[in-house]
Inverse folding.
């Protein structure tokens, strides 16, 4: 049943460019899709290990800068008067390096920060994101600082015997984001249904009991952080090559908050929750912009979020799934009674 719903959802999303002709709305869907991928990566930590990272945007931004610098090239000075010169590489290589570097950063951050829990972990992640933002802001020779990296080339896919296909149009980027999002979804689904996924859930439910049965806490959480950071790095790379300009504002705290809202509203710990929450809160500002002043938009945004959390406290997907199960259970419980009453009437 779940697989059928997933297939239908992907098929429906694949048809969107066929009937949606407004480039503004298509652009909103692309950027929303990129942040949904980031929210999916955050959900791997928050929803399946119970670790709240409020610095997750750091990995998104690292992926964006690594991919942009790989495809643009750079020339920076080193101690001793030497210079490090990097010639531009194909953007697809930048995407691969963004995933690798973001994953490595996730490894080091996880290795250090998972020795603490709760509020201390949150502070460590926020501090890491702020440090990375300050590096991007002040290392002007490499990142251009507040002047931004511009003219970032679009991703080009190599085609055997036909050269390259450069993904410049919104239609092409829409399908690129859809494919990357589907790959990320399948990877996370495979992971959480494996032995490793059960270990993550065990740590979230009862860490003491999980340790008593031999689960290595630091190893499990660090591996989850690596995969989560790598997926966020891929999302950042897509963002950089689609927007084609990147500056330190990509590390803004509001972007992490946006991902957290997508996860919580959709339902943390559910595979499809970030996608549902992401579509609602990614497109809600677009729907409100023509009819409300900016201040009223934020009030409506917060009101919708509060309404969802009050009515569906576990998030949209888990709460609706729970209600559906209760209805089915109630119907199944009433069925024998109905059959018995029918039998009595026939006997009479």
């Amino acid at each position: 049943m779940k697989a059928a719903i997933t297939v239908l959802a992907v098929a429906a999303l694949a048809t969107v460019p066929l009937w949606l002709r407004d480039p503004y709305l298509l652009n909103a869907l692309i950027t929303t899709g990129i942040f949904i991928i980031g929210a999916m990566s955050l959900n791997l930590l928050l929803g399946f290990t119970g670790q709240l990272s409020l610095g997750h945007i750091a990995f998104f931004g690292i992926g964006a800068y690594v991919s942009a610098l790989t495809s643009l090239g750079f020339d920076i000075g080193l101690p001793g008067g030497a210079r490090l010169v990097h010639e531009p590489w194909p953007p697809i290589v930048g995407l691969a390096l963004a995933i690798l570097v973001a994953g490595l950063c996730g490894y080091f951050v996880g290795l250090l920060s998972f020795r603490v829990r709760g509020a201390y972990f949150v502070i460590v992640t926020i501090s890491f994101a702020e440090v990375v933002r300050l590096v991007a802001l002040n290392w002007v020779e490499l990142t251009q600082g507040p002047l931004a990296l511009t003219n970032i080339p679009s991703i080009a896919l190599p085609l055997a015997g036909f050269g390259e296909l450069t993904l410049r149009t919104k239609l092409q980027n829409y399908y690129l984001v859809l494919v990357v999002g589907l790959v990320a979804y399948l990877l996370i689904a495979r992971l959480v249904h494996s032995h490793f996924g059960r270990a993550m859930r065990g740590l979230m439910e009862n860490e003491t009991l999980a340790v008593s049965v031999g689960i290595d806490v630091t190893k499990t959480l660090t591996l989850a952080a690596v995969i989560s950071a790598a997926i966020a790095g891929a999302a950042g790379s897509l963002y950089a090559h689609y927007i084609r300009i990147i500056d330190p504002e990509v590390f803004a705290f509001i972007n992490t908050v946006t991902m957290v809202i997508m996860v919580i509203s959709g339902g943390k710990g559910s595979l499809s929750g970030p996608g549902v929450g992401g579509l609602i809160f990614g497109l809600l500002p677009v729907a409100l912009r023509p009819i409300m002043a900016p201040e009223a938009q934020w009030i409506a945004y917060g009101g919708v979020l509060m309404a969802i959390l009050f009515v569906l406290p576990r998030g949209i997907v888990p709460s609706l799934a729970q209600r559906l199960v209760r209805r089915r259970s109630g119907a199944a419980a009433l069925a024998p009674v109905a059959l018995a009453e029918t039998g009595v009437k026939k006997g009479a």
The mean pLDDT is 88. Residues 20-252 form one domain.
